[in-house]
Design a protein that fits this description.
Elements (H helix, E strand, L loop, with lengths): L3 E4 L2 E4 L3 H11 L43 E4 L6 H11 L11 E8 L2 E9 L6
Antiparallel strand pairs: 1-2, 3-4, 4-5
Length: 127
């Protein structure tokens, strides 16, 4: 927890606002907070990480033009979206996070196996 100090009658805290100061003061032992009476249940905040999928991971050494035709399959809300999520979790440097709002997910196939994942999140814009 961030520290709270009382210096010449002024509260200084790294958090903003009174609730943050109270939490910091309680954690630091300066005040005693009442016990938590209710914990919100949000099942979306504790999503399980995607399970690894078993696919052929041997290197493809052919140039892209020899892998034709490429098939782009939209997989959102389909069973294969699990494959897309798992590959993002395994290979993207940030892992997989459930997109917020409207989005599309694609698997790119060549030679009967997925070779790429493509996702698009559509954000709102205001004039």
């Amino acid at each position: 927890m961030r520290s709270v100090a009382v210096a010449s009658g002024q509260w200084r805290a790294a958090r903003h606002g009174v609730p943050g100061m109270l939490l910091d003061a309680g954690a630091g032992g300066q005040i005693t907070l009442p016990p938590v009476s209710y914990m919100r249940h949000n099942p979306l905040s504790t999503r399980a990480r995607p399970e690894p999928v078993l696919i052929d991971k041997s290197p493809i050494e052919d140039p892209l033009h020899k892998l034709q035709p490429l098939e782009f399959e939209q997989v959102r809300r389909l069973r294969r979206s699990r494959c897309s999520n798992s590959l993002m979790e395994e290979h993207h440097y940030l892992g997989y996070e459930q997109p917020v709002g409207e989005h599309l997910k694609y698997l790119v196939w060549a030679e009967g196996r997925p070779i790429a994942v493509h996702g698009l999140v559509i954000g709102s814009t205001s004039p």
